[in-house]
Amino acid sequence: MDSVIVQTHDLSKRYGDHIVAVDSLNLRLRRGEVYGFLGPNGAGKTTTLRMLLGLIRPTSGKAIVLGERPGSPASLTRLGALVETPTFYPYLSGWDNLRMLALHAGIPKDRIGIGAGEFNLAGTRRLQDLFAGHEGAIGRGGCPAERPGAFDSG
Fold first, then answer.
1. For labelling alongside 62, which of 8, 32, 72, 95 has CA 20 to 30 A away?
2. pLDDT tens column, 53-95
3. Residue 55 is part of which domain span?
4. Contacts by residues 55-58 (CB-CB < 8 Å, ≥ 24 positions apart)
5. Is residue 34 part of a domain?
């Protein structure tokens, strides 16, 4: 089994003729490595993550994530990611939000408790009645239920 889980070759994203968000990124991440993107606003950190998740298409270059093209169902079922601020249903509890995530991702109900337990989301209070940090906890709580091969908390 190949230990490379993310690989890019000259990955670039441009907006129009003058805005270069990511310029020829070459990267190789191996299983078990911890990797972070550091840089000022506008450096291309979020744009890179969005390309690796298949949320936006690169202008040029190639990327492989967990052996698949970014955004493919085969890679997304093995990937847990939070890009910027997660948004959930404020009128549902943390537990019910996790149930909705599981339903949409095709995750068995018996896996939901793992994320809920790890991030203390088993209560029934509505999300809008809790502090803002719970939204991030729900997002992180949903990722272990998917058994990801890669995880980002952004």
1. 32
2. 888 999 999 999 999 999 887 877 777 776 776 666 677 777 7
3. 4-71
4. 55/83, 56/13, 58/11, 58/12, 58/13, 58/22
5. yes
